[in-house]
């Protein structure tokens, strides 16, 4: 008999499969008339058809299971030029709570706080500077404001401008620099506050076809970061000498533009690399039709 499985359809037993392909001669005393033989063959073919249909459905369901189910917190947007931009903005806003706390099942870390393993600053011009920050914890990122967003449906390029009203940084640092004629060297903890941090991100994506199904993959992200103003405090300068440390921090903040200029390229690269991984984790296993169905 056919067995009912958890997938909601019946699969033929091996005994029935053997019965389907039974090629034994008719038994003695069996009706061997043409009509009886035709009926017997018809029954066999009908049973075979049911068996093959079960196998086809089984493979179809198993193949469908390879596609990741779309989480309910990801809102889909149709490929309609008239509505795509507003729809994506609303989708990001709807995703804000998950981005804030993180999405472990998608491998997406929390942005509150947002962790930066390492950031470097290096220059050899009029203000020699060699500095690095480690285990930087950034708070305030979840309060981002979407200033503008555009989606090019032909190239699937997404351009978005964000503003972070205020960010706070805590972590460890190492510094070897010279401000004017004063050498600055030390290591310890840092605390910094930045305001009006504007970021422009450009997501470059491509369509990847696998087994006849189209998926989105982000291949590159460009980041352009500008910070209106910031203040930083470094503990541990001059072996912890308080007077010299306060004077050094004052000098650093008076020349913060040079420090920011030296830090900017590595900061942008770090942000782009982290976001690229997060973006691909979110869309991994989701088809193009799931994310952006045709109107």
TrEMBL record:
Keywords: Biological rhythms, Signal. SMART domains: JHBP. Signal peptide: none annotated. Pfam families: JHBP (PF06585). One of its GO terms (cellular component) is extracellular space. It comes from the Eukaryota. GO terms for biological process: circadian rhythm. Belongs to the TO family. This is Uncharacterized protein. It comes from Spodoptera littoralis (Egyptian cotton leafworm).
